[in-house]
Amino acid sequence: MLGNGEIILRLILAAILGSVIGFERERQSWAAGLRTHMLVAVSAALVMIVSAFGFADVLGRPNIVLDPSRIAAQVVSGIGFLGAGAILLRGEVIRGLTTAASVWSVAAIGLAVGAGLNTAAIAATVIILAILAGMKPIERRYISARLRRRVVLRVDRGALTLDSLRSVLGRGGERVKQFIVQQSDEAQDCDDVVIGFARMPVDEFAKACDLLRRAPGVRTLREETDNADNGDGGENGANGGN
């Protein structure tokens, strides 16, 4: 049986490791942030301690055999309900999967701390934090940026609004992440409209451009995808990942 001091130290370590990952999620303004990750880590550590040491007083009795992994196994499957609450579905775009995965990972870290595997828990925390924080710029530059595309339209004054755009594009309007309308400097009776799409495959983008060209009031359409395809483009107004 663990001493009281060892139990407290394990719970504190779980809270610290959970806070490290939770702070990164809090910085991204996700619902499952600092406190959520700390609570999950401490609770998982406590469950593991109870599972491994909470029944020591009955183990010596006849015909009693306990498996210390049974309660811990329920954490692994049960934490999925909490992770599901962090996932949002907006049209065809799913957001929050990374946060849900981080909550599940923190539960695993808590279980490791509760079992006394401190080195494994600390190493996992460092690796997970590197994935969450370190891989984000790489993902934005070389992966997500390639999936973002933009078009510049010249339309009759007031001919294209956000509502009419969604009507023209149909379900493709769910991909619109940037919509900017400004008066044209070259034609007084026209507007210049910039439309940015996020995570749109090439075939869907071509279909959207065809629909926009045929939309009422559209005079010209220019595609701007070279920078995004080369990985050199910026965010183009699109929302970040999970």
Largest sheet data? 4 strands, antiparallel
Are there runs of 5+ residues with pLDDT below 50, and where? 226-242
The radius of gyration computed from the alpha-carbon positions, rounded to a whole number of angstroms, is 26 Å
Strand portion: 15-25%
Summed over residues and divided by their number, the pLDDT gives a mean of 78
Order of helices and strands: HHHEEHHEHEEHEH
The residue fraction in helices comes out at 40-55%
Output the strand order for the largest sheet: 4-5-3-6
Question: Given the helix and strand composition, which structural class is it?
Answer: alpha+beta
Note down, in words, how this protein is organized.
- By secondary structure, the protein is α+β, with helices and mostly antiparallel strands.
- It has 2 domains: 4-142, no CATH class; 148-229, ACT domain (Alpha-Beta Plaits).
- The protein is 52% helix and 15% strand.
- The chain is built from 8 helices and 6 strands; from the N terminus they run αααββααβαββαβα.
- It has helices at residues 4-27, 34-53, 69-84, 97-114, 118-142, 162-169, 202-213, 226-229, and strands at 88-90, 93-95, 149-156, 176-183, 190-197, 218-224.
- Strands 4-5-3-6 form a 4-stranded antiparallel beta sheet.
- Helix 1 packs antiparallel against helix 2 (34-53), helix 1 (4-27) runs antiparallel to helix 4 and helix 4 packs antiparallel against helix 5.
- It is elongated and about 90 Å long.
- Residues 226-242 have low confidence and may be disordered.
